[in-house]
Structure formats: C-alpha cells, structure tokens
C-alpha cells in the first residue's frame, strides 16, 4: 500500500469520525455539502484568497487560524469575534483585554467576505468563513487537511466582558485549562492537541516576562527553562520591550510537531504551554507527537472539527459585512 492510499484511508476515516463528532456536538447539524447548491464556489474562493494572503505574508496563517478558536470559545462559532462596536458603551469581543492588540487578520476576513458576496450574495456566513479559513491557512503552512462542516448561523451579540472566563489564559495551569475547554465540550486530550496550534505564529515578549525576569516574584528566571534558550530570549526580548515578538515555536512558519519537541526540551514559552507537561496525559501526547508527527497532524484536524462544532448560543442570521450586524435583505 503506498503512502497516497494511506492518506486516502485517513481522509475517509476523518470524514466518518467527523460525521460522528458533528452529530454529537452540533445542534445545527453542520454538513460538508451545505453550500454545494447555493454557492458551489465558496470553498475554492476561500482557499484561493487564503493562499494569496499567506503567500504575501506567511505569518498571517497563524492569525487567521486563531480567529476560529477565539470565535468558537465565546458564544459558540457564530462570527461574534469579528463584530465591531457600534455603541461606545458596549465593547465587543475583539476589544477585550485578551484580544485587543493581539488578534489579527480582520481586514483579510473582510476581503474574503467581499469576494464571497460578489459570487453569491447573502449566502455564506462569517462563522463558516472562519472555519474554512482556519483549515486552509493551516494546510497552506504544512498542516494536514480536514473536512470542514458548514451551515453555521452568525450571531448578533458580541460582548467584551464575556471573553474573560470563556477563553483560556496564558497563566492557566493544567487543571484550569481542562476546565475552560470542558465548558465548551472539549476534553483534556482535545486541549492538548489544540494547544499544538502554537506550532505557528508569534507572541508578545511581555507574555512570558515573568518567566524570564521575575519567576514567582523572585527576580529570577524560571529554573525549569533551558538556560541557553532563556539567554536567547533575553536578547530577543529585553525587559524594556514587552511589545516585541517571539516565535511560538522553533519553526513558527511551519505547522508541525516542533511545538511538542520544544515543550519536551524545556523550550516552552507560555506558562500554559509548559503546563501541559505537568500532567501525564500531556507528557504522553507530546512524546507521541514528536515520534509520530503524522498522528498529530491528523488529530489536530479532528480536534478542529470538534472545536468548530461548538454550538452558537444565540444564532441570529446572515451578515453582509462581518464586522456589523444588519438585518438580511
Ligand atoms: C490552551 C490555551 C491557550 C492559551 C492560554 C493561549 C494563549 C495565547 C497567547 C497568550 C498568545 C499570544 C498572544 C499575543 O502575545 O498577542 C497566543 C497566540 C496564538 N495562539 Fe493561542 N492559546 C491557547 C490555545 C490556542 C489554540 C487552541 C489555538 C488554535 C487551535 C491557538 C492558536 C494560536 C495562534 C496561531 C497564535 C499566534 C497568533 C499570531 O501569530 O497572530 N492557541 N495564544
Ligand atoms: C472593525 O474593527 C477593526 C479592528 O478591530 C478595524 O481594523 C476595521 O477597520 C473595522 N471595520 C470597519 C468596517 O470599521
Ligand atoms: C485597544 O487597543 C487600542 C490600541 O492600543 C487602544 O487605543 C484601546 O484603548 C484598547 N481598547 C481597550 C478596550 O482597551
Ligand atoms: C479575568 O478574570 C479573573 C477573575 O476576575 C482575573 O483574575 C483575571 O486577571 C482576568 N483576566 C483578564 C485578562 O482580564
Ligand atoms: C490551578 O489554578 C487554579 C485557579 O487559578 C487554582 O485554584 C489551583 O489551585 C491551581 N492548581 C494547581 C494544581 O496548582
Ligand atoms: C534583579 O536581578 C538583577 C540581575 O540579577 C539585578 O541586577 C537587579 O538589581 C535585581 N533587582 C531587584 C529588585 O532585586
Ligand atoms: C517573531 C517571529 O519570529 N515571527 C515569525 C514567525 O513566522 C512568520 C512566518 O514565517 C514570520 O513572518 C515571523 O516574522
């Protein structure tokens, strides 16, 4: 049996698992063929745009993939992360502390939406765009593909004060991470696999300053960090520059299992990354991901399908612009 047929088998397994997962987690009954008659070009338009965007700026693949995660964890996968405030007294999710000056790619999503509105006006939801974009961005930088289930209905509400408590935080320990993921129906293994999203992208230096400069308030470097790595970080991220950037793993432009290798060699960046190894399940998975990267690449897609099936708490309708709610025509 050659490699390609193994891939085909994996794909079929993926499709079967995905149906099971989607049936279990989605009240809205998402399907892979949702736009087949209403907008058959939808998926290819998204892929073409994502390819062009990532060709122009490879770092955006990470930002685009992350939007789906931040969307789904708050009010379900409903495009709420994309909404702009219209009332200065009501800040939307993107302005919350955990998102502001951190999420990127909004303009690119708007571009994709515009293209889809030209091709098929009033058809494709913003939440579905985020799901397709996350898959295409991941694949574009080395990840494995997965079938994207579609048919999400966009929400109308987006509230900054719902973000804290819904999204995990960089200082969370293993128990807290498991609890936060459990709130949206994801288990510990899903959490460990989805953390592999940190195989791509970048992080502000300030997000790990405590570990570098003031571990447990003691004015020392976290002794669990590889000392050479810590010295390198101090050069890249001097204390005066919290808004500088560091790569989330050693190969931040490529989606692979290096993130887990970094964890196992004491080169994790965020406390929440390092926390994975505080539990035997995390250690076991990190070793498996390094020994058998294909399994991680496959399972990441499966976990993204599950994450993408988190039901919307308040489905509203379709939007002509992803940053605004207006009634449909
Ligand atoms: C497990 C809990 C998680 C925590 C605590 C966490 C936290 C963070 C933090 C603090 C950053 C850097 C933000 C900044 O400095 O501006 C970041 C970046 C990122 N996260 Fe997570 N994250 C988690 C899970 C995930 C998951 C599940 C995914 C996707 C499946 C993901 C994808 C990303 C990506 C791609 C970036 C880089 C974004 C960019 O380059 O613009 N993260 N995350
Ligand atoms: C919506 O907000 C984003 C930043 O969060 C901004 O880049 C974008 O221009 C805004 N969109 C519109 C149409 O005002
Ligand atoms: C978000 O960041 C911008 C730019 O730094 C800042 O002007 C704005 O006040 C921040 N919003 C909130 C709600 O903190
Ligand atoms: C979120 O809320 C908790 C509890 O109120 C608080 O300790 C934490 O600092 C908040 N995080 C952010 C990013 O606002
Ligand atoms: C994990 O964090 C939670 C909340 O931040 C805390 O209550 C708990 O004691 C911590 N657990 C461990 C094992 O450190
Ligand atoms: C913290 O440690 C650094 C380097 O070891 C030292 O230069 C500095 O004076 C210390 N600061 C405090 C407040 O102890
Ligand atoms: C901080 C850092 O190294 N970021 C890089 C991550 O990877 C992208 C894509 O290769 C680069 O554009 C970033 O500069």
Automatic annotation (TrEMBL):
A GO BP entry: hydrogen peroxide catabolic process
The record's free-text note on cofactor binding: Binds 2 calcium ions per subunit. Binds 1 heme b (iron(II)-protoporphyrin IX) group per subunit.
Residues engaged in binding heme b: 198
First-tier enzyme category under EC: oxidoreductase
EC number: 1.11.1.7
Occurrences of domain Plant heme peroxidase family profile (ranges): 29-326
Residues marked Transition state stabilizer (site): 66
Co-factor requirement: Ca(2+); heme b
Ligand binding (Ca(2+) 2): 249, 256
Name the record gives this protein: Peroxidase
Organism: Marchantia polymorpha
